[in-house]
Structure formats: C-alpha cells, structure tokens
C-alpha cells in the first residue's frame, strides 16, 4: 500500500517537472519572439528614417511632388538610355570608318595581286608552249639542271602564293563588307531607338512641367531642391564617366606601348579590358548587404543603397584606390544634396561614392587602402536620418551595390 502511494507521489512529481520544463521552454520562445518583434520594429524604424532621404523632405512631399519625383526618375532613365544609344552610335561610326578604310586597303592589295597574276599569265603565254619539263630536259649539265629546277620551284611557289593571296584578300573584303553592313544596320537601329526615347522623354517633360506649373510657392521651393539633387547626381555621373574614359585611354596607350616595345602588332586582346567588380568589402565594419536598410530601388530616383547607423560610425574604403573628390556641398551656410561626400577610383574600372557624412577623413588625390577610415556617418545634405549612402560605378555608370557587396 505504501509502495503504491510512493509511486503516485513520484508520478505527480514527474508530471510537475515536465510541466515546468514545458512552461520554461514557452517562456524562452516568448522572449525570443519579443526580441525578434522589437528587432523588426527597430529595422522598420530605420527603413522609415532612411527612406526619408528623398531631398530630406519626404514627409513634406505632396502627391504632386511625389509624382514629379517619379517623373524625374523616369526622365533620368530615358536620358541614360539615350546617352548609351548615342555612345553606341558613335562607337559604330568609328568602326564603320575603320572598316571602310580597311576595305579600301584590301581592295588596293587585291588589285595589285590581280595585276601581278595577269602579268604572269601574259609572260607564260608569250613564252610559247615550252613547259617546265622542256626547260629541265634542255639542261647542259647537272648544275644547269639544278639551277633550272630551283627557278621552276620558285616560280611555282610564287604562283601558288599569288593565287592563295588573291583568294584570301577576296574573302577578307567580303567579310569586312558584311561586317560594315551589319554596323550600318545597328547604327540605324540605335538611331531609331534613340529617337523613340526622345519622343517619350519629351512627353514626360511636358507632363512634369504641367505639374510644376500648378505647385504652390512652398512646393516649388521643395521642387527646386529635388531638381538640384538630381542634377548633382547627373553631374557626378558625367564626371566619373569621363574619368573612367581617361583611365581606359591610359590603359590602351600603355598596352600599345608594351606591344611596340615587344616588337609585335597590337591586337584587340592587348587593349581589351574588363572591370574588376570583385573584392569589395562592406563600407561599415561588421556589416554586409544584409544590413542594407534601403536598397537601390527603395524608391524612385534612389541611386545607391543606404545603411542606417549611429552618427559618428566610421566609414571604410570598400577597395584601395585614389580619392577623386572629397568635398562638402554647402550653400548659404547649409548642407544640400550629398552633403559631405567622398568618391574613390579603384584603378580597375570601378569607383565608389560615400555620402551624407558628418565629416570627412581624407582629401582629394589621397591614396587610400581598403578598410581605411575615410569619414564618419552623419545626416548632412538632403537627409533626415543618420545613415551612409553608398554607390558603386562600373565603367563610369551606376550599378546596384548589393550585387557586389559581401
């Protein structure tokens, strides 16, 4: 009887222990859930703060201003596409000029070879029916036989080379003419596309101007700030594209000089160059692309990615390179646009931009190493929350940084 009571007590104690463990587990999960919820709220808050970067006036933007901002983004896209098409046309026109010159050169070579062949045929005709065998049999001695045999061998080789050369030159001319025709078709296609985009751009600009004309005085002031920021972005893009072009030209000249020094002709492979888009580190220590709070497509016209973080957080160079520009956008004693910002060229076809710093730690033309502190997080310029705005350029054009960051 006592044994049964003891077993019942043990059973009850076991049940209680299991319940305590279960409740403890529930408590742990509840705490974890609370922590995750709070963390999500913090992230949401960061995103909300960082998204307000649009000219630093997002909360004040009316529907009309938002629509104008959307128009600006679309206009910028069309302008970039038109620039790309015009560059393609310019490149193709250069290729066409080169191909036309090459065709003329090959044609001249072909005419010279053809003329030589005709002279050989005339000479053979005028020599009568005497064959190479007759020439050999008419030899007076062994040395005369060997001499005539050598001459015949040289003549035969010359004739074969002449015929092969004519055929090769003819094929090269045909190939160049086909490539020339393709290039001309591409030029026409690119011109047509550019014209269509210009027409679409004109429609957008007119619609935008209609909206701008109906804005209030306060809205127009904000609109002007938006336009200035957009123009700054375009100007920086133009500057970096020009630097990228100069760097590419320097690499081409160096390749040509190296080939000349080595005594060999310059090939396309010698001067071809592919930007090195690998090897970037996150510009904030201990962070990665998973910490991006506003992506490149976070809102219309956002040309980079944002990392929300406390003021004064050190900003690191994502790669080694040379500082192209370290400056502050200030007007009437106030920061605007990118505020304190730094741009770096990495010498491999890529460049980076770091904006809205509280202060900069490097100067223009200074050489920096990867991971070096180049400035500190802030909220200068068109920004209402402490964050780093980060951009990557490849061959002078903006790309989405998240695809290159670890």
Structure description:
The chain is α+β, with helices and mostly antiparallel strands. The protein folds into two domains: 94-215, no CATH class; 225-403, Glucose Permease (Domain IIA) (Distorted Sandwich). Helices cover 59% and strands 15% of the residues. The chain is built from six helices and nine strands; from the N terminus they run H-H-H-H-H-H-E-E-E-E-E-E-E-E-E. It has helices spanning 2-51, 63-126, 132-137, 142-213, 217-261, 268-271, and strands at 305-308, 314-316, 321-331, 334-345, 350-360, 367-368, 373-377, 387-394, 397-399. Strands 1, 2, 3, 4, 5, 6, 7, 8 and 9 form a nine-stranded antiparallel beta sheet that branches. A hairpin with a 2-residue loop joins strand 3 and strand 4. Helix 2 runs antiparallel to helix 4. The longest helix is centred in the middle third of the chain and has 72 residues, at 142-213. The chain starts with a helix and ends in a 7-residue tail after the last strand. 21% of the residues are buried. Mean pLDDT is 79; it is low at 25-30 and 43-52.
